[in-house]
Amino acid sequence: MSFASLTHAEEEGFWNLWFSELHKGNVGMTYKVKRILYSGQSRFQRIDVLDTHEYGRMLVLYGSVMISDRDDFVYPEMIAHVPYYAHAGARSALVIGGGDGLAVGEFLKHPSIERIVIVDIDEMVIEKCKEFFPRSKAAFSDPKVEVHFADGAEFVKSRDERFDIIIVDGADPIPPADVLFHRQFHENCREILNTGGIFVSQTESPFYNPDVIKEVYTSLGEIFRIAMPYVAWIPTYPSALWSFAFCSDTRHPLEQFDRDRCLSEEIETRYYNADIHAASFALPTFIRELI
Amino acid sequence: MSFASLTHAEEEGFWNLWFSELHKGNVGMTYKVKRILYSGQSRFQRIDVLDTHEYGRMLVLYGSVMISDRDDFVYPEMIAHVPYYAHAGARSALVIGGGDGLAVGEFLKHPSIERIVIVDIDEMVIEKCKEFFPRSKAAFSDPKVEVHFADGAEFVKSRDERFDIIIVDGADPIPPADVLFHRQFHENCREILNTGGIFVSQTESPFYNPDVIKEVYTSLGEIFRIAMPYVAWIPTYPSALWSFAFCSDTRHPLEQFDRDRCLSEEIETRYYNADIHAASFALPTFIRELI
Lengths: 291, 291
Description:
The structure is a homodimer.
Chain A: H1 3-11, E1 17-23, E2 27-41, E3 46-52, E4 56-61, E5 64-68, H2 74-86, E6 92-97, H3 102-107, E7 115-120, H4 123-132, H5 134-141, E8 145-149, H6 152-158, E9 163-169, H7 183-191, E10 193-202, H8 210-223, E11 226-233, E12 241-248, H9 259-265, H10 274-279, H11 285-288
């Protein structure tokens, strides 16, 4: 059968291919797939790029959705702009993980950011993102961006350079990304923060992974003077309620939030805005009770 | 085969029954089901009660999840307590739809509420909820609660009694619940609100159903002096981001929010709290742009 007739079958609706991401094997999201654009195995993980009906192109690592065309604005905006507008004037950012380049792309919206270093362990993730996602390609083409293919935990241990903002845009706490949830890693990150610096890490779903949140805050609360969770809605992530940890020794995310600057700069966003900045730190009672 | 061996197969993990709720046939949530506790057809719709692994018991109407044991706190808390604490001193509430009784249960947490009238078109929904969900049974047993089995739109048209709070806890805008999204219904609700009254309606997912939101706010914005959307995260609802419309001629949900009373009364909730009240009116940019 020729490729032309394969396409025809798909258009006629005979083609029913579904991809599901399950939580504990008991519940999950399921997506109707037009076509598998890429499937491969890097040194570290399985990598798939799917073209889906409702969410467009999707990057799937080890069977978990990382980004999709339709909802790729929420996570990168919330991990980048929240620390940016709580900082007194950030000029440099270190991104651990984040091989899709979308968080880098959000930092690049701020002309005051002069330098972004990104450290992802898996070169193939960056390659495939550049190949299939135009926004990733644009981010990695910017001369302000320096890419390292390395273990993020090793990188921060050995680095002399300091940063104004460090974000951990890593995968779930399973190898190779599990070290990004360890106390030693958090301490090393603090060591290479400039005075007035801010550290932000993704911390999983408070609904499906309450234990991760409990554990990580015990450690972060001892390392940083300020360690506060904030949340965002991400429809393709398990339970769709996602949490981040905002940590700093000097900058409070609400008291030091520069609302006027945030309003006046009018960067283009689809989720983040000055009201959302503050609102994302208001926690549902069941999350409050975890911490 | 005896029922005992059926149960055995289930425990051994041989039993793989999945229920999925799809959006546009292209994406959805999928749940592993232990057992179907009830399946039937009322005069108005198909009714199922499922026992699922991750979410416990679930009420499913016309194939859409309405409530589950695990996440049944978010929706009823957010549709009841937001108007309650924005009101100067509500004593009566009218619930249109809401046959699960959970919103009624939230109003009953406030001793100042003396009377709750609930109007659901489908008696069988209430019957089945009382049979399978203990919280529903408790709500409907309270002497403050008066139940009518009637068309909500007809009920408000012919009613003389007035209410301090009216909430529309109806299903999606397809028959029989589609009339609850019509302008005439909203106008009739306003007619039977006491002075200082508040009207709240669920208004679907802003991510999957932006057209519903656009349309409903055109009408609500002309009928009420104040018509403001607020959002909540509900993991079993399509996209997990849900919206509600807060409407009143005199009460602003933030300026007239009685934060001190909310904090001092300490009602037991798992999602709603004073910070969430305010934060739920902060809208992601893509929702702002709809309205």
